Amino acid sequence: MLTAVAAIAGALTIGAWILVSWGSRRRQPWLMAPLAAAVVLLVAVGLAGWAFAPVVLLAAGTFAELVVGSREPPALRTAAPEAPLSTERWAAAVAAPFRTALAEPWDEVECPQLRRGYRRALEREWGVVDRASLLATVERLWTELHGGGDADVHVDFAAATLRGRPRPDSARERVVHLTPEQVGRLRAVTGAEQGADAVVVAAHQWWRAAQIVRLVLGGATLEWLSRVETQSLLRRTAGDLQRRYASWQQLAEAFHCGYLLTYAQRGPGWERTWTALELLAFDPASPWQRLPWDMPLERASYEGGLPSALPN
Q1: C-alpha 129: how far from its chain's center?
Q2: DUF1266 domain spans which residues (predicted)?
């Protein structure tokens, strides 16, 4: 009887743990796998009474993940802190705010625990549902970046406004009214002196290279792109961006301004990425502080347009 009760309780708890872990955007709940294995092992060898201890611990951990897991604040995490410099690592750092917002390692090209998150986010934000739509979206972004002149942003600290075109081909300028916190952040990111009334951030549209990298990382995670294709796309995007800006600070300036201009809707996801941007811009452990901007980057294995040269 005790064995049957332990088996049922263990099965229900393990099932709940699997569902919560699968639905979570974090890897932490999967670290409780030894508890699930202990439940199965103890029941199998006839030590049903002892099995209740890991069952209780697993149930408590699963409940904690439901309550506080989704509230974990953005954090800088690195899967391989001592990894050597590489073009792929440099490219991943460009899109680090999106992973940092989820408190996930920024330097993993393929991130299996984010498959469901990527699938939902790519469809919701870009209408991307498969390989074909992914490549079409990447090509569209690439074409927009190379299709016109530069788009500058004017930040007026005195009036607390940010004014500019989200893209060079935009018909009209957009004006964003800034909060005091945003004014302070932009002043710090741009290095403007306290007495300065305004600054101009040139060619801000190249922050969208980070969006291309994010799409590529999502495609790699969802297995829509091969490793060779992923490597080529990352190298091409990284090399082009490195030629456009002279430092991570310039990318940080453009990212902040472009993000404010592009995303008018403010929600939990927006706030998390905004917080992540602050970490990337100022935290000494940030790859934007530690990786050399001008490091030699490997060239892509093909020439021409970004995705059009890839095999179908």
Answers
A1: 18
A2: 122-293
Do 64 and 91 meet the contact criterion of CB atoms below 8 Å apart?
no
Rounded to whole angstroms, how far apart are CA atoms 101 and 115?
16
Q: CA of 54: how far to CAs of 35, 37, 60, 277, in Å? A: 5, 9, 10, 39
Residue carrying structure tokens 């604040």: 73
Tell how far CA 186 is from the center of its chain: 21
Residue reference for tokens 């030699």: 296
Q: What does the DSSP assignment read for 66-97?
A: HHHGGGPPP----S-TTPPP-HHHHHHHHTHH
Residue-by-residue pLDDT tens, the chain, 312 positions: 777 767 777 788 788 777 776 665 556 777 788 877 877 787 777 776 777 777 777 777 776 766 555 567 899 999 988 889 999 999 999 999 999 998 899 999 999 888 988 999 999 999 999 999 999 999 999 998 887 778 899 999 999 999 998 877 777 889 999 999 999 999 999 999 888 899 999 999 999 999 999 999 999 999 999 999 999 999 999 999 999 999 999 999 999 999 999 886 565 578 899 999 999 999 999 999 999 999 999 987 654 455 554 544
* Long-range contacts at 289-293 (CB < 8 A, ≥ 24 apart): 289/248, 291/85, 291/89, 291/90, 291/93, 291/248, 292/85, 293/242, 293/245, 293/246, 293/247, 293/248
Question: How would you class 285 by CB atoms within 10 Å of its CB: exposed for 0-12, middle for 13-18, buried for 19 or more?
Answer: exposed
The label of the residue with tokens 């090209």 reads: 109
Q: Which residues of 129-153 are buried (b: 16+ CB within 10 A; e: fewer)?
A: eebeebbebbbebbeebeeeeebbb
CA distance 111 to 89: 14
Nearest to 3 by CA among 38, 36, 52: 52
Distance, CA of 251 to CA of 13 (rounded, Å): 46
